[in-house]
Write a structure and sequence with these properties.
Length: about 450
């Protein structure tokens, strides 16, 4: 939210550290990545191509692991990137069932196919629309991927993924940012993150520049016709939104049944908004919590829409609130009332690291936790124990061995994001330094998988 000094004063009075701004967070990360660059972390041939390796006695090759096998790996340099530095990832399942991923890199988006044995094949790439940037984010609706970036004047690339279906992998294709795009939407220039709501064909770009006119809040783009995206509205009341999940609501708060609701992660608050009317969205609540340092991302527990999980990106870094021990801390929010959500508990990982993105599938939260890599947490106990006491880690794959000798570190290195929604069950993890990992969880399912 971060709209007034009044709020900051109230937050400080409540005994919690004031949350940081995006500008400060960006500065911290740029510093870290400049040091990494200096140390050669993105150099060519810095990392080895690695064959599929099972997790045995806590190790898959050089990677620490538990109940997660390595099935495939492609380095950023093997996916046509000349900056060799990764960021977001999303997946696409073709109408015929083939599975593909769009892998974010600072200089573009790589396309890979995930084969039935879990291996990955590079097919080609779409370069950045303007310059390179550490931030690139993509989501898929139907057969199109929508790509935004913090790169100046980037806009929203719209790319038809069916173009990947007949590529011969022996000659990967570099697509044109003019003739191969379905559309390039320039209603905004830079953006931090792209949120997609498949059910309403809406893209919500967040963290757009002030000049785009939405104060960095939800910049709504109607992509019903992917070839001609149309601005549908703006939510600027809560200021900068860092990420969001939007749904057609069917949870316990029957006042909002059938409404389009977004859960916005707003730097120092969880904001719940009704965006049914694009021209006059309504904020239903804005709630902060002990330890709020940089409210980053989150995901609903399941389709009953009673709980959500939230991650804060700076609580571990600064050691704020419950994260004073720097163990990755996940917040549980009871959203039974959309106007009065309550923070009901936390979960702390056994690992020291910052959290970045998490998605929940069938009672398991797949967390991309920077230096501790993929962490799989059984979250199915939340409805019976909303204080978080029943949560447990059931598997992990640590894609960043460099900090192992320290017992982990709360730093902005390692994995950026994870895509756990493929029917095949393979989970893709994009690491900043190394490349994309195809992983298979081999442990037990959640005790209670509600969907
Ligand atoms: C989106 O565009 C479609 C087709 O042009 C239109 O029918 C629909 O009402 C639009 N939705 C919104 C929310 O503007």
């Amino acid at each position: 939210m971060k709209t007034s000094t009044f709020l900051a004063a109230v937050t400080a009075f409540a005994g919690t550290a004031a949350a940081e701004s995006m500008a400060k967070l960006r500065e911290l990360k740029i510093d870290t990545w400049a040091r990494q660059h200096e140390a050669g972390a993105y150099d060519i041939d810095r990392y080895q191509a690695t064959a599929a390796t099972s997790c045995v006695n806590g190790k898959a090759g050089e990677y620490q692991c538990s109940n997660v096998d390595l099935k495939g790996f492609l380095r950023h340099q093997d996916m046509g990137s000349s900056t060799r530095k990764g960021n977001d990832i999303w997946g696409w399942t073709a109408p015929n069932g083939r599975e593909f991923a769009t892998v974010g890199q600072t200089d573009g988006t790589a396309f890979v196919e995930l084969l039935s044995d879990g291996s990955l094949v590079y097919l080609g790439r779409l370069p950045t629309q303007t310059t390179s940037s550490s931030w690139r984010d993509m989501k898929v609706i139907g057969n199109h991927v929508y790509i935004g970036s913090e790169a100046s004047n980037h806009g929203l690339q719209v790319f038809d993924l069916t173009k990947l279906l007949d590529i011969d992998p022996s000659s990967p294709k570099v697509f044109s940012t003019t003739s191969d795009l379905t559309a390039i939407y320039k209603g905004f220039g830079s953006s931090h993150n792209i949120v997609a709501h498949e059910e309403t064909n809406m893209i919500y770009a967040v963290g757009t520049a002030a000049s785009a006119g939405c104060r960095g809040g939800l910049f709504m783009v109607n992509v019903t016709n992917p070839a001609s995206p149309v601005k549908a509205g703006c939510l600027s009341a809560g200021g900068y939104v860092h990420d969001a999940q939007c749904v057609i609501y069917k949870g316990p708060d029957t006042r909002y049944t059938g409404k389009e609701i977004c859960f916005n992660f707003n730097e120092d608050t969880l904001d719940i908004v009704d965006v049914t009317s694009k021209s006059s969205p309504k904020t239903l609540s804005s709630k902060t919590y002990n330890g709020a340092s940089y409210t980053h991302q989150g995901w609903l527990l399941d389709s009953s829409m009673k709980y959500l999980l939230l991650d804060d990106e700076l609580d571990e870094y600064y050691g704020n609130g419950k994260a004073s021990n720097k163990k990755t801390t996940t917040y549980i929010v009871d959203i039974s009332s959309l106007t009065a959500p309550t923070f009901s508990g936390i979960y702390q990982s056994p690992a020291t690291s910052i959290d970045h993105n998490q998605y929940v599938v069938k009672g398991l939260s797949y967390q991309s936790n920077y230096g501790s890599g993929l962490r799989i947490v059984d979250v199915s106990s939340i409805p019976s124990k909303p204080d978080g006491s029943g949560l447990k880690q059931v598997g992990f794959f640590d894609c960043y061995p460099e900090d192992d000798s320290y017992g982990g570190r709360a730093e902005f290195t390692g994995s950026w994001s994870v895509y756990p929604f493929f029917k095949s069950g393979y989970v893709l993890l994009n690491s900043i330094e190394r490349g994309v990992f195809s992983l298979k969880y081999t442990g037990a399912g959640a005790a209670f998988a509600s969907e």
